[in-house]
């Protein structure tokens, strides 16, 4: 039998002073209520309620058990209400992870608007270029630039995709010139991102023509912002998603090269544990970020 039903029945009997009234209040038959009460007393090895055909009263040990049972039921009800609240109202700590560049360029600028819409949600942002384990590291939502996940139980939702561009500073190009063909990159200083799918190869396409070249780095790093800083200092040509270097290109601090060739686009996906019983805070962030990214070029 359900132990919580037994506790609830005992508390209700004590408060109403009647087994039949307690049974009616809980939607039980008198026979079922009697079995629940008997099972509770047998398990405890104590008489909680003395009853006869005419009257019912709670024993001394029953009075103590009533106080503790009442407190336990109230605690459980509070816990249940808290869970229900998180399902209907966005609240609590939301732990998200993305690369440092994505956090700086596209998540951080949206936080004031998100905070205004969902003031009861507190964000814990893990800015990291490596991929955290969603479950083991207690991640609610990850933004990732890879097509699939090794854990097939995770939900992978396409958010958008982005171009990758080659660019260098005006100072570097004035000293070394601008490459006219992908093969010419062998004569240049390259700044390579080591977390790329194939960091030492570049696949180029132009119309029906395609070419794959092997690359050698003069500087390599696992962080796009470090490579961006190196490119701004004239240390070489980098290949990065447009969201990392867009502002620099618009401002003229970096100049695109080999613009008639294209590199494979990167998918940006949302990754989370399940669509089933998704907390309101997680659903709110997903819906918010999807809507905001629709406005981006």
Compact description:
With 297 residues, the chain is α/β, with parallel strands linked by helices. The chain is 41% helix and 24% strand. The strands form 4 sheets. Strands 4-3-5-14-6 form a 5-stranded mixed sheet. The protein has a 5-stranded mixed sheet with strand order 11-8-12-7-13. Strands 1-2 form a two-stranded antiparallel sheet.
Description:
With 297 residues, the protein is an alpha/beta fold. It has 3 domains: 3-85, Arc Repressor Mutant, subunit A, CATH 1.10.10.10; 92-162 and 267-293, D-Maltodextrin-Binding Protein, domain 2, CATH 3.40.190; 180-264, Periplasmic binding protein-like II (D-Maltodextrin-Binding Protein, domain 2, 3-Layer(aba) Sandwich), CATH 3.40.190.10. It contains 10 helices and 14 strands. Strand 1 and strand 2 (56-58) form a beta hairpin. The longest helix has 29 residues, at 60-88. The protein is rod-shaped and about 105 Å long.
Topology as a string of helices (H) and strands (E): HHHEEHEHHEEEEHEEEEHEHEEH
The CATH superfamily label of the largest domain reads Periplasmic binding protein-like II
Q: What's the shape?
A: rod-shaped
Structural class given helices, strands, pairing? alpha/beta
Q: Quote the CATH topology of the largest domain.
A: D-Maltodextrin-Binding Protein, domain 2
Mean pLDDT: 87
Q: Low-confidence spans: pLDDT under 50, at least 5 residues?
A: none
Total helical segments: 10
- Under the CATH scheme, the architecture of the largest domain is 3-Layer(aba) Sandwich
Helix content: 40-55%
Distance between the termini: 60 Å
Number of DSSP-assigned strands: 14
Lateral arrangement of strands in the main beta sheet = 4-3-5-14-6
Strand content: 15-25%
- How many strands, what sense, and barrel or not for the largest sheet? 5 strands, mixed
**How many structural domains?**
3
**In angstroms, what is the radius of gyration?**
32 Å
CATH class of the largest domain: Alpha Beta
């Amino acid at each position: 039998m359900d132990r919580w039903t037994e506790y609830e029945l005992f508390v209700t009997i004590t408060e109403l002073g009647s087994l039949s009234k307690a049974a009616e209040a809980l939607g039980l038959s008198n026979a079922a209520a009697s079995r629940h009460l008997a099972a509770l007393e047998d398990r405890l090895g104590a008489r909680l309620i003395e009853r006869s055909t005419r009257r019912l009263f709670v024993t001394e040990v029953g009075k103590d058990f009533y106080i503790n049972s009442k407190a336990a039921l109230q605690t459980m009800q509070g816990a249940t209400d808290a869970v229900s609240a998180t399902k209907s109202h966005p609240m609590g700590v939301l732990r998200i992870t993305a690369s440092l560049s994505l956090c700086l360029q596209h998540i951080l600028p949206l936080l004031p608007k998100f905070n205004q819409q969902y003031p009861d949600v507190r964000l814990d942002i893990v800015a990291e270029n490596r991929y955290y384990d969603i479950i083991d590291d207690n991640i609610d939502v990850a933004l990732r630039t890879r097509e699939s996940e090794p854990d097939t139980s995770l939900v992978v939702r396409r958010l958008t995709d982005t171009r990758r561009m080659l660019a260098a500073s005006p100072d570097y190009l004035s000293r070394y010139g601008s490459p006219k063909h992908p093969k010419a990159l062998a004569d240049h200083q390259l700044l390579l991102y080591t977390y790329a799918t194939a960091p030492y190869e570049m696949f180029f396409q132009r119309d029906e023509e395609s070419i794959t070249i092997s690359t050698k780095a003069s500087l390599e790093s696992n962080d796009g912002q470090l490579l961006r800083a190196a490119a701004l200092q004239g240390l070489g040509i980098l290949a990065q998603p447009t969201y990392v270097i867009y502002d620099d290109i618009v401002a003229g601090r970096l100049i695109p090269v080999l613009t008639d060739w294209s590199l494979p686009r990167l998918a940006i996906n949302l990754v989370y544990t399940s669509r089933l019983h998704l907390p309101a805070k997680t659903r709110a962030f997903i819906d918010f970020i999807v809507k905001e990214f629709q406005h981006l070029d």
